[in-house]
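Complex 287.
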Amino acid sequence: MTNLALFEDDGSENPGKVVRDILLQLFPSQNEKAEGSSDFLRNLDDALLADGELVKAVYNSVINYAARRLIKMAQHKHRKYSGDDSYPGESLDRIRSFLSHNTTIDATFQNKLSILLYTAAKEHRNRSKALKEQIFNRSKELGARCYICGRDLSFDDSAGHLFAQVEHLWPVTMGGSNVESNMKLACRACNNVKASYVDAYDFHFEHFVSQLEEGDASFNKEFNWEFKVASYLKAGCQCAECGKSSDDGELKFLRLNTSDCWHYLNIQPYCHEHYQLFSSIRGGQTE
Ligand SMILES: [Zn+2]
Ligand SMILES: [Zn+2]
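Predicted structure with zinc ion bound:
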């Protein structure tokens, strides 16, 4: 029986996040399959010696995709049936009816899920320009770093990639709230790439696991910002060695295994101190 506890104390700050958690419960990962399984992805994963990371990435990516599709469907129904806010229940009814006709999820879950989807769809319309400006102006005086890459932010619009922008940790299009705890400052480069992604699993993992030749001259071109942001998010925007966050300074990448190339599963970000310490041994990131 599925555990319903999460509905009672979720705080409902990010309905989209709760939707995703429900999907994770409804469709549990097969990652724990019995030994000797002939699962193709598991075998591929073993071949890559990635400790289950590829299977996990594929699974989470599918769950994120499903959550995104459901929230988008709810937004569509909300736009279509709640143009007049005096009838707020109509789009909720439509979502409930969609779920009951198109899924085999039991009735209790259908009700809970439809309310969450409705809330996520409503939240999407609830913009908060004033709060964004407040965060921007406060940080302008104090100074700030990008929460993803850790570079110093500029508050001058002509600064290009380093210009500070208010980023939603849980994207508004994915049911994220316009509350301060869901907003952080990121550089324009990271913000543009992260956009409506939730976490590292949203990036195209096939691209990241494709092998790059060590010492390949095209490496810098391949190691583009999308690849970097996904790699930062994979590590929780922290130094892989000491856990120091991007708040303390820029994070740079190193390979875990120097005999392997710069692919997604073989790199981690490091703080300045650990980058200095390990880069002579492991061969630092080329700029
Ligand atoms: Zn950044
Ligand atoms: Zn460190």
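DSSP finds eleven helices and four strands in the chain.
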